[in-house]
## 1
Amino acid sequence: MGFVLNRNFWGAGIATEALREVLAYGFDVLQLNRIEGGCDIDNIGSEKVMTKAGMAFEGVLRKNERIKGEFRDTKIFSILKSEFDSMSRGGGQ
């Protein structure tokens, strides 16, 4: 999933709410066991969206993407179905 949000709406929880719905669809409808995502190492906003949605930081892929002619690092996050289910029952964020 990728997202772009107008700056006027940053910090309102819109992207986090949307990601939680995507996670729910992935686990409940598609019956996935694990969902992962990544963001540029300097993209603090996307990192916050993933952690607020319950995703855990796993590590960094070094220089794995070329963006605007420069190789960049990517932070990787994931969540398991069991973790999502636990959060949905009030055990987390």
## 2
Amino acid sequence: MATPAERAMASGWSIDLVMIDGAVEAALLLDKMKTMRSRHVRDDDIYICTFPKSGTHWVWEIVHMIVAGKPTYAKHWQNISWLDCRTEQEIDALPSPRIIHTQRRPGQLPRDVWQKKSKVIYVNRNPKDAAVSTFSQASKQVWKDNPAGKHTFTGSWDEFVTLYQDGCAPFGSILEHDRQWKNVTDIDVCRVQFEELKKDSVSIVKRIAEYLERPLSEEMYREIAEACGFENLKHANEKLKDQTYHNNWQQGSSGYFRKGQSGEWKNWFTVAQSERFDRLYEETFNEKFPY
């Protein structure tokens, strides 16, 4: 019987996929995962944990500005501090306080995150919108390490959404990822909802700053929220930042920044696809789909 990783590769994912800790992952992460649990953690580290396409760039930049105390964009793409893809030496070379982001599940993070009670921000998003955003990126994305030059996902939306719902896509099931993070009680996690950040970004910026014990003025919260608005942040990432860690894209693709909207899933999901996602959510969390 085929594994979820094998099923994914047979149905449109063009990158090498393997099973790691029971979830589908890109094979290029294998070496990084071997040392993940034992990696060094500093006392002032800040970890931003998300499932892909849930607001990672957005919150990473907000945190960077809070730490800097001003609405100045980080020099590099956030991928410079992507725990999953950077070597241990690259992560260790980052200056303190390190603002590290990851798509790891709780049990995969470095052990000392829990021992040191590190600052951890978890960002989640309506999984249907995350699915649309993932498909839109993966179907136009060409990774630097893909020698065949194929798009990351070559199948149709219908094929994609079935795989995504079944956890047969890189990083595994978004529902299982969210479930595990919801169950974390060992440390105080700052939980950020993508949709709430869209609705009232100033309040969420303030809440994150207070969680990090780095309070700023009300005016500064407004300036950071504005600087990290979708169009401003997209311009900064595409035009102002060092592009060393940027992925290659199909010509004309919007790359990481496409629309940044909530509710677009309604234009993509069929009634049957939506109802199945609702059932899976209810089975996972024992509650109605909330979005």
## 3
Amino acid sequence: MKIDRLLEMVYVLFEKKTVTAKELSNYFEVSQRTIYRDLETLSAAGIPIYTSKGKGGGIRLLDNYVMKKSMVSEKDQLEIISSLQGMESLNVPGVEPVLKKLGVLFQRNDSKWIDVDFSHWGSGEDEKEKFKKLKNAIIHKKRIQFDYYSTNGEKSERVIEPLQLIFKGQAWYIYGFCMVRDDYRMFRVTRMKNLNVIAESFERCLVEESQIYQTETGIPITMVLKIDPPMAFRVYDEFEHGKIVKNEDGSFTVTKTLPENDWLYGYILSFGASAQVLQPMHLQSTIRGILEKSLMKYI
């Protein structure tokens, strides 16, 4: 398309400073007459293009010309570049070359303001590669095969049609249709091992968000915890500000709604002796029972 060629032409002029009509003709695989018509179009749009003859002559832009003078405000430049940098961090296909060209056109070398690493602290390259595989499988609608370890450490082989990567409850999950269970399931990414993207494609689409969370193991409950002062850093990291009450003795009373399952029990116990379940009473009894069983191992 002509508009694509015009944008690319300005980019080439910024990058190479001076070029000849023949070089542009060869680059774009069009006639020199077409190149001159394009240059007239750019000049009419306010792009200051100059030509000179003789040795060292050619086509160039006015020195120190910046794209913003005729097309894009500085505020818009920052918004565009920042948005593209965010997309690049998420590995969205095709963003890198666009970002590079606009950076040259706007003459901006701003530092990259965002970086997204889906893997957890201390993980190796294998964990990072896992997220790349999941992303490609979702985008290209390819089934994945992996070994999955339950909360009890039981191993099972799964083949699923991955539909969405979800961050929930301080952990990453993959949501999809499990071919083994013949139903929709959520799988915690850290429990997936030996992940492979297989050649089989699928047509299944993502269901309503409300249906996604109905498939998660455990019925959501609202719990109230009392957490001691030494855990303040976790309180402010892991709970909504509006759900935190600071008590006179420096402790915190927090409220949070989560599915009741083994992960929830482990989460509460991760606070050690610094957390106490206040409500609901059945959850208090469950945690007490787990602690009593643990204590029996040391008698």
